[in-house]
Here is the input.
Amino acid sequence: MSFLDKFKSVFKTAGEEDKLKQQSPLKETKAGSPGKTSLLASLLLKTPHISEKATQLSQEGKYVFKVVPKANKIQLKQAVEELYGVRVLSVNIINIKSKARRLGRIVGRVPAYKKAVVKLAPGQRLDILPQ
Here is the structure.
């Protein structure tokens, strides 16, 4: 018995492999269908990033989100289209590095995060920012 035989017994047939894929919570759904979103799309976008600059960008049809650090542009485009039912023209990603901060003699760090600036098609908008 070799070391790799343990892993072969996990998926005995291709049929079992397909059954496990069908039971996965990360099912793909039709883009733009409200109410039916995949778990992956809702996990990629953390929160809208609300700042003075983000509010100004929203008037131009660009919206800023804090996203998962491993997300890429293609995944983010699909997630926004799926969650909000809009057409995305482009996605720009910004990595914000962590910074050292002091409180007296205690030195700490502000956590790093990733932002995505999403540009929508003309005439489309999202109601995520407070007015």
Q: What stands out?
A: The first helix runs from residue 5 to 8. The helical segments are 5-8, 14-23, 39-44, 52-58, 73-84. Residues 23-34 have pLDDT under 50 and may be disordered.
